[in-house]
TrEMBL record:
It is a single-pass membrane protein. Residues 13-193 form the Band domain. It is found in: Membrane. InterPro entries: Band_7, Band_7/SPFH_dom_sf. Its main location: membrane. GO terms for cellular component: membrane. Residues 205-270 form a coiled coil. One of its GO terms (molecular function) is peptidase activity. The keyword Coiled coil applies. This is Membrane protease subunit, stomatin/prohibitin. The keyword Hydrolase applies. It holds the Pfam family Band_7. GO terms for biological process: proteolysis.
Length: 338
């Protein structure tokens, strides 16, 4: 009443309260009473905002493409923005003019200028493949733009969602890419088959090498076995020769021993013979009867009787009659036995 009003703002608005053309108060989320006839209130939204864009540009090879993306920004210096654009609100907090559209339009103009400078340096294929490079260059260009800095804005991000050629060129590129992909597929099939053949060759070669190695190893084993057998036979032959040599040496030793033994026995017999001849030489020329008489000590009388009968037999031609009865012989023998 009487032109005195009350107004309140949330924390996402930067408020500048002018009274009689001078700043009376400023800050975020203010609430105050004011006298409407001599007051003016500016409210700058501080939240970040997004908006979409789409540009039609021409590439280096004169092909038309569409660039579609999104830009995110916020107010960095609200007092500077208030110096350039009108964000005055009425007693109910509504904007007298809507200059938010001007902000977006000026950012779009800067982004379009930047995108044109990027796209015109690229061919169609490069533009379709280098979205990250295009996005980075547009962001750098817009952030460093004089217009954006003059407005006191901060560009938070630029996202390029896609670069699209016109439908005819898209179909041509699809056909070309399809042919290229088909060639790559054929090449991949060829390489896969070639790889399979090469792998099969390597496997067969490996198998042959393995068989050769096995044969060579078996040959080495056979040769080693033959060498072992030869060495074994040689050792056996040497053992036999050593055994034979030992036997021969033993037999030679035995033969020498026998010869020595025979020689000794012969010498011993010669000695005995010499001793015997030496002992018997005195009796050599004596009559045997004399010898019997000499050796009569301890001789059996029956031997004397036998000698007597022998004498009788030798001189039988000189004896006329000789009677010896059995009783006489028996009595003689009995007497001697007693």
């Amino acid at each position: 009443m009487f032109g005195i009003n009350y107004i309140k703002f949330d924390s996402m608005n930067y408020v500048i309260y002018f009274k009689n053309g001078n700043i009376r108060n400023e800050g975020r989320g203010l609430s105050f009473f004011y006298f409407a006839p001599n007051s003016s209130i500016v409210s700058i939204p501080m939240e970040s905002k997004d908006f979409q864009f789409i540009f039609n540009e021409t590439t280096k090879d004169y092909q038309e493409v569409s660039i579609q993306g999104q830009i995110t920004y916020k107010v960095k210096d609200p007092k500077q923005l208030a110096e350039v654009l009108d964000f005055t609100v009425d007693s109910k907090g509504y904007y007298v003019k809507d200059d938010n559209e001007k902000i977006q339009q000026r950012i779009i103009n800067e982004a379009q200028t930047a995108s044109a400078g990027v796209i015109q340096k690229l061919s169609l294929k490069e533009a379709l493949r280098q979205l990250q490079q295009i996005e980075t260059q547009i962001l750098d260009s817009v952030q460093n733009s004089k217009t954006v800095n003059m407005l006191g804005l901060e560009i938070l991000s630029v996202n390029v969602l896609g670069v699209t050629p016109n439908p005819e060129m898209a179909r041509a590129l699809e056909a070309q890419m399809r042919e290229s992909l088909q060639k790559e597929a054929d090449q991949a099939i060829y390489e896969r088959r070639n790889f399979a053949v090469e792998q099969e060759r390597i496997i067969k070669e490996t198998e042959l090498n393995t068989e050769i190695a096995i044969e060579e190893k078996q040959k080495q084993i056979a040769e080693k076995q033959m060498e072992t057998e030869v060495v074994k036979q040689e050792n056996e032959q040497k053992l036999k020769e050593m055994d034979m040599a030992s036997n021969i040496s033993l037999e030679d030793s035995k033969q020498k021993l026998i010869e020595i033994k025979v020689e000794n026995e012969k010498k011993e017999a010669d000695v005995k013979e010499y001793v015997l001849h030496a002992n018997l030489r005195p009796y050599k020329e004596l009559d045997w009867k004399t010898l019997m008489a000499i050796n009569s000590k301890g001789v059996d009388p029956r031997n004397h009787i036998a000698l007597a009968f022998r004498e009788l037999a030798e001189n039988a031609d000189k004896i006329g009659n000789l009677n010896i009865s059995p009783e006489l012989l028996e009595s003689i023998m009995s007497t001697k036995n007693k």
